[in-house]
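Hey,

Quick one before I head out. I ran the complex with nicotinamide-adenine-dinucleotide overnight. Inputs first:
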Amino acid sequence: MRALTKLTAGPGLELVDRPEPQCGPADVKIRVLRAGLCGTDLHLQDWDDWAAATVQPPLIIGHEFYGEVVEIGEDVEHVSVGDRASGEGHIVCGVCRNCRAGRRHLCIGTQGIGVNRDGAFADYVVIPASNVWVQPRDLDADLGAVFDPLGNATHTALQWPMVGEDVVITGAGPIGVMAAAIARHAGARYVVVSDTSDYRLRLAEAAGADLTVNVTRESLADAQRHLGMREGFDIALEMSGAAPAVSDLITNMNHGGRIALLGLPHEAYDLDWGKVITHMLTLKGIYGREMFDTWYAMSQMIATSERFRTAVTQVITHRFRAEQWEEAFETARSGQCGKVVLDWS
Ligand code: NAD
Ligand code: ZN
């Protein structure tokens, strides 16, 4: 089968012929139809310090995907051949304290598909049946491929009730833009999105942001003035990983404000901890998706709201055939894009 592979420890990727993965008794084999590109895939191509410390080549990369089930293991009961499915990219251990308490997103031994084991930038991928999310047959295939990042956005945005709250989202990458659509759907009063890119802020506007802020020209304090806000934001979703964005948030939250942090910083940074304390802020780190409450919530938002479905679909700005993977990676790297999807069908 075709597989986009990290063959040796070092920069680069190759589209090569690899044996099809074998389906174990509790596994499901999926014929990949679409797969989404994520920042992780760019890090793997670059072979940065994180990739070098994490990955053991040869490895097929890719973890955002949608496809058709073509084989099930003998112990598999709730997934059938012919089902259309997306995959949860985190495989949990099942035996740690959190797993056994049903808090699988907090697993201490999480393995990443396309990072710690072969992934989905290939004709076929094998995953445990427990990681399969069966999709409605009429779901658009491209949408099916973005449930992983949509799940990151959903898990982050639904940390606290949003009805009537003033919400700020820092970072208008694909996940930040999806989060703007969720905040709108979940009843926020104002949804403000910041980024350094006008292209990406336009995507956030299309997704339902009331106001966008290009932080190279304006600050969140300016945004508050434009909207006539007096006290500060109630909820923040940090989706840039940029230290200046976090500092700007800390100074623009209302007392008791809540900040959910999804964006991964490149290195350690300083914060004004005095303000965190005296403004009584809550900071919460977010990783992955809740298994499978997040999947349930996003599926119902997609199923019940035309507006929401359209907003998420519009985040997908570029589609490439698998053979055009180099162009797809260049596009993702340029930042002049929303979500980039590879067609493996
Ligand atoms: P992305 O890199 O496409 O988007 C980040 C955006 O932040 C970019 O558009 C960038 O221009 C913007 N930005 C940079 N500096 C900024 C600043 N000072 N203020 C506001 N915006 C700024 O990433 P994405 O795919 O949308 O993912 C969002 C973040 O979440 C990334 O940091 C990613 O690594 C992280 N992530 C975390 C998890 C998790 O489980 N915790 C999962 C997926 C992604
Ligand atoms: Zn576990």
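The radius of gyration is 20 Å.

Talk tomorrow,
K.
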